[in-house]
Amino acid sequence: MILYPLSRNVSGGLRRMGHVETPQSRQAAAIRAAAIEMRTVNWCLWKALIPALMVFGLWPFYAFVATMEHPFQRAFAPGDFILFSAILLFEIGAEADGGGLFPRGIRIGSALTRALAALLMPIYWVIRHDVMLKEDALACGKSPSPAYSALLHKLRNYGCFSCTVAVISLIIAALLAIALLEYHRTEELRELGMTI
Question: Taken in order 48, 49, 52, 58, is the CA torsion positive or negative?
Fold first, then answer.
């Protein structure tokens, strides 16, 4: 470690390596760090958790307010969570791209999340189309028939798949958001260290 001599400048700040630390520069660094943290918290809250809870809220709404039969299948089989997951992964992937400024691991994670999001879109279209074709059969079907039971089972599987994709996408997005936050914190500390 190389130690540089300290000297006072005219404004009263300490000078090291040609950089001047003043109370204003420390306050500016603290404000930038708080802004980065707040941006990450806002992203997680407003772009991930609240939309996920709103989509998840369809199930109790269908079950208790609208009193529909088979609320789980009606809420999650159409694949709304798959569309939500694709949009979420596209968003965090684009934010983590950084145009070559971020470390290689974050850029690889960004590319993988965008590739996964691109893969989810055709899956959403296929499931959505299949569910739309089966909606009439669900509305007209008779409960004891084997065809009706098979249809409910298929729609339940679509709903479970949709929820699983959403949970995995939320975890991936959270991990990438944490990696971005840690990178920004490290950069702020490095910049602050250069001013001291």
Answer: negative
Q: How far is CA 127 from each of CA 5, 83, 131, 174, rounded to the nearest angstrom?
A: 67, 11, 6, 26
- Inter-residue contact 76 to 161 (CB < 8 Å): no
Question: pLDDT tens track of the chain, all 196 residues?
Answer: 343 444 444 444 444 445 556 777 777 777 877 777 787 788 778 888 888 888 888 888 888 888 888 888 888 888 888 999 999 999 989 888 877 788 888 899 999 999 999 999 999 999 999 988 887 777 676 667 787 888 888 888 999 999 999 999 999 998 998 888 888 888 877 776 765 5
SS3 content of the chain, % helix, strand, coil (to 5): 80, 5, 15
Q: What is the pTM of this model?
A: 0.75
In whole angstroms, how far apart are CA 82 and each of 46, 127, 155, 167? 18, 9, 14, 10
Residue 129 lies in a domain: yes
Q: Is residue 7 part of a domain?
A: no
Distance of CA 33 to the CA centre of its chain: 21
6 found inside a domain? no
Cα 188 to Cα 41: distance, rounded to the nearest angstrom: 17
**Quick check: is 127 in a domain?**
yes
Give me the domain span that covers residue 132. Answer: 23-195
